[in-house]
Design a protein that fits this description.
The complex is a heterodimer of chains A (241) and B (273). With 241 residues, chain A is mainly α. Chain A has 12 helices and no strands. Classes of the chains: A mainly alpha (241), B alpha/beta (273). Chains A and B meet through helix 8 and helix 9 of A and helix 3, strand 8, helix 4 and helix 6 of B.
Chain lengths: 241, 273
């Protein structure tokens, strides 16, 4: 094993970190935005609201992300209405195909995570909010969701870490993020061992940072008294939630 | 029994006009599952009255209280807030009774402070934030005005120095006092207490009862579901004894509690005899 080659590879592959992070963070944000309203629909007692969402999460969690990505990347271009509309400007670009696949997939998992949290909020806390006359939307956004989010934070952190790793599939649709660059580098150096060790090390670093971040958020959301808060921006985040 | 007052008459006589009940239940029925919990209950709270509702567990007293602010929706009967009848839709087919006018329900609930047996403070908010929630997001006060309002009521229940504490860092008695401040910060017309001391250790009930007593002395209109007999006797202008989903006896505490007419109340007051 060539240590020098590994360090050299790491330097090259760091060039892909930005794209990996872009894909991961954007699809997590879109997935989050989709999943909050859909999780409330999924948790609803009304079948009319919950069943369509269940169908969606069932399909996206029950099929491989790679298959979803291929369907979007190779499949969308077969549809005339996509080719002939503004959508083509987006989806002829593999970046947006990957972003769409990752966002929909992440949303499906996140919906189920949040649904569990929503259903675990004690009914008495909702009644207390109803009793002061708070509107249903405010009850959801100010009482139920913040409490649900705290409960499921560890599971959501798993989803985030999973998304970082899953973003490597973008390399299959020609994107040169960390794994894409690694494959390119392998074809140039014929040293798969060193190059993929380097790639793995970078992913390890990213997932380590992500789980540290979530540990900190968890610590602060679990309510250390505000005067002990060491990170003012986290305190702000907590107040916002 | 109070007779119904014609609220639509154009020239109500002064005395009568002042006697419109703040909150009134009229022949309320409620079945939970297959169990008929309320079987025709009428109760009216007039301004400045303190009504204690007594009764064994399962007699329907908590359900009655929850019907008054529509946390439970009565299957039949009427709920009146002052001169306004609440819009209730009776059960239809497989659906249970439901609220007809959600805006009205919210507006009326905002005028009825409710204190729960298990406090139900929001654990992700500090004492101050718990109390401020209603003033900011229901009454529409500015943050500044809401903070002042919340601080005023926290001071009133003796917890201003705990304003930045989270509920889990407060004792049960303190949590319940914050919950009382949260109800008061809505400047409610009527306060509803659902067994406010039942979840507390005996040594913590005193501080909560003192807070409730001082509210009674201010002349606030209150309906109190409680097991604290001697407290009910002291603070109430009227007590109602419930059994089997009905009000068995109702009247001034000295009469009802000293000379119980029904066998049920006699047994309730002195289980040993």
């Amino acid at each position: 094993m060539d240590i020098a080659l590994i360090t050299e590879s790491i330097e090259t592959l760091l060039g892909g970190v930005v794209l990996t992070l872009e894909l991961t963070i954007l699809s997590l944000l879109i997935g989050f935005g989709l999943s909050v309203p859909l999780a409330f629909m999924r948790a609803s007692r009304s079948q009319w609201l919950s069943m369509p969402v269940l169908a969606y999460t069932y399909v996206f969690r029950g099929t491989p992300l790679l298959v979803q990505l291929f369907l979007i990347y190779y499949g969308l271009s077969q549809l005339a209405f996509v080719r002939e509309s503004f959508l083509w400007l987006l989806f002829r670009d593999p970046f947006y195909c990957a972003l769409l696949a990752f966002s929909l997939n992440s949303a499906a998992y996140t919906i189920e995570v949040f649904r569990g949290g929503i259903q675990s909020v004690p009914p008495g806390l909702v009644e207390a909010a109803q009793a002061i006359g708070l509107s249903p939307t405010k009850i959801r956004l100010r009482i139920v969701f913040p409490l649900a989010f705290r409960t499921v934070l560890p599971s959501y952190a798993n989803e985030v870490v999973g998304m970082i790793k899953a973003s490597s599939l973008a390399s299959t649709v020609t994107l040169l993020e960390i794994t894409g660059l690694a494959r390119k580098l392998v074809s140039e150096t014929f040293a798969p061992y060193e190059v993929f060790i380097a790639a793995g090390a970078i992913y390890l670093g990213l997932t380590f940072l992500a789980s540290r971040l979530f540990n900190l958020i968890e610590l602060h959301l679990s309510g250390a008294p505000p005067d002990k808060a060491r990170f003012p921006w986290l305190l702000k985040l907590r107040q916002a939630l | 029994m109070q007779t119904a007052i014609d609220i639509h008459s154009e020239n109500p006589r002064r005395g009568r006009a002042a006697a419109i009940a703040s909150l009134r239940a009229e022949n309320v029925h409620k079945t939970l599952g297959t169990h008929p919990v309320l079987r025709g209950v009428s109760l009216a709270a007039y301004p400045h009255e303190v009504i204690s509702v007594l009764g064994a567990s399962g007699s329907g007293k908590s359900t009655l209280l929850r019907c008054l602010n529509l946390l439970e929706v009565p299957d039949s009967g009427e709920i009146w807030f002052r001169d306004e009848k609440l819009d209730i839709r009776p059960p239809a087919g497989r659906n249970g009774a439901r609220i007809g006018d959600a805006r009205q329900a919210r507006r009326v609930r905002a005028s009825l402070g409710m204190v729960f047996q298990s406090f139900n403070l929001w654990p992700h908010k500090t004492a101050l934030e718990n109390v401020m929630e209603g003033p900011v997001h229901v009454r529409g006060l500015t943050r500044r005005a809401a903070t002042e309002c919340a601080e005023h009521y926290l001071r009133k229940v003796g917890l201003i120095e705990r304003r930045d504490h989270y509920p889990r860092h407060l004792s049960g008695g303190q949590q319940q006092r914050v919950a009382i401040a949260r109800a008061l910060a809505m400047e409610p017309e009527v306060l509803l207490f659902d067994e406010p001391t039942s979840a507390l250790d005996p040594e913590l009930t005193g501080e909560v009862l003192r807070a409730i007593r001082s509210l009674a002395e201010e002349g606030r209109t209150m309906i109190l579901v409680t097991h604290e007999l001697s407290f009910a006797r002291e603070v109430s202008s009227r007590v109602a004894f419930m059994q089997g989903g009905r009000i068995e006896e109702e009247g001034p505490p000295e009469e009802v509690l000293s000379r119980p007419a029904s066998a049920g109340l006699r047994r309730f007051l002195d289980p040993v005899c």
